[in-house]
Amino acid sequence: MPANPSPARHTDVRQDPRWATLLARKSGDAAFVYAVKTTGIYGRPGSASRLPRPENIEFFDSPQAAEAAGYRPSRRADADARGLEQRNASLIAKACRRIEAAERAPTLVQLARDAGMSSFHFHRVFKSVTGMTPQSYGAAHRAKRLRDGLADSRSVTDAIYDSGFGSQARFYAQARGALGMNPTSFRAGGVDTVIRFALAQCSLGTLLVAQSEHGVCAIAMGDDPDTLVRDFQDRFARAELIGADAQFEDHVARVLAYIEQPGSTLALPLDVRGTAFQLRVWQALREIPVGSTASYAQIAQRIGAPRSVRAVARACASNPLAIAIPCHRVVRSDGGLSGYRWGIERKRELLQREGVPSVGRATGNV
Q: Which of 21-30, 35-44, 76-85, 136-145 has the highest mean pLDDT?
């Protein structure tokens, strides 16, 4: 039984438009659940259970809202939710395959019609399942096709059109976000791209910091300087790598100082390249305050993709900018440490330096 059920929006729920949907026993695109004050449970409008008296009914916009008010799902609602999740996952997987196979990106209306949903409901379900909007998913896939195509196509123009961009103007407006540089340089493995980098020693081992013309593009830590340099060179095998100038040395010094004595922020110009989903995760990481942590599940919630916990963990593991994008502040739901790209002990040490009260044991789970 809910301790303090929130008041219904209408004195008489029969005046609420949702009452007609409930009477019709149709779930459809219904974006609400109904709760029963006398039993403390909630269900979907399509449930076959007997309807209670109107004065005992309370409407909520989502199961989460009903649970926040103290209600629990009925067994039927629980089973229906599992079945609905499986159905939605199958429909969204089909939509993803259509996006990937299409020469021109299908519209939201077309995708929703194929799934048998309204555009609004499809958009919400797609984002819940994938962690991305249909538009962002399509853009990320086009960018991947472009990167693959630039390596194989006879010309840059062929790769642009083959990857699904309707015009060169549309592509060049998005080129930097898709590639991080102009397509000719990308195709040539980074030729004509100037990247300054430097190595330094700190209390956590060897530090590598690199900067493109757009900002710091890599911060890595390790035990072997040669391994750090080789891994970095592999990213852009034909880029022009040069020694650091005075301004760049200042960036390196700021990273070193932050490692030794973490402050409130590490304000550096960043050149961040990733998929739409990765960028959303990395931005959420940058919003975790110094001295605080967040779980992978909390990050998934914050970016509006609560079922994408493992995808969040993969995005953390792909982070190319240690410290600047503080993936070390992400821990398990029970507070324990999970994997860290630059070593679990470095993660533990960074958290302790930032004043995190206690750091749990290391584990591979999220």
A: 35-44
Closest among 59, 8, 55, 2 to 33, alpha carbons compared: 59
How many C-beta neighbours within 10 Å does residue 37 have?
17
Q: Is 217 a catalytic residue?
A: no
Flag whether the pTM goes above 0.90: no
β strands within 146-239, DSSP E: 194-202, 205-212, 215-222
Q: Which of 96, 217, 316, 327 is catalytic?
A: 327
The residue segments making up the domain with residue 313 are 276-353
In a domain, 111, yes or no: yes
Confirm whether 323 is domain-assigned. yes
Please tell me the total count of domains within the chain. Answer: 5
Q: Is 299 helix (H, G, I), strand (E, B) or coil?
A: helix
Boundary (domain end) residue, out of 209, 226, 260: 260
Exposure string of 253-281, with b = 16+ CB inside 10 Å and e = fewer, is ebbbebbeebeeebebebbbbbbbbbbbb
My answer on whether 49 and 84 are in the same domain is no
The stretch 130-159 carries a mean pLDDT of: 63
Residues 63 and 100 reside in one and the same domain:
no
Structure tokens, 304: 């509006």
Contact status, residue 121 vs residue 29, Cβ threshold 8 Å:
yes
Q: Is residue 365 part of a domain?
A: no
What's the angle, vertex CA 223, arms to CA 219 and CA 229, rounded to 5?
50
Q: Per-residue pLDDT tens for 247-258?
A: 677 788 888 888
Residue 247 lies in a domain: yes
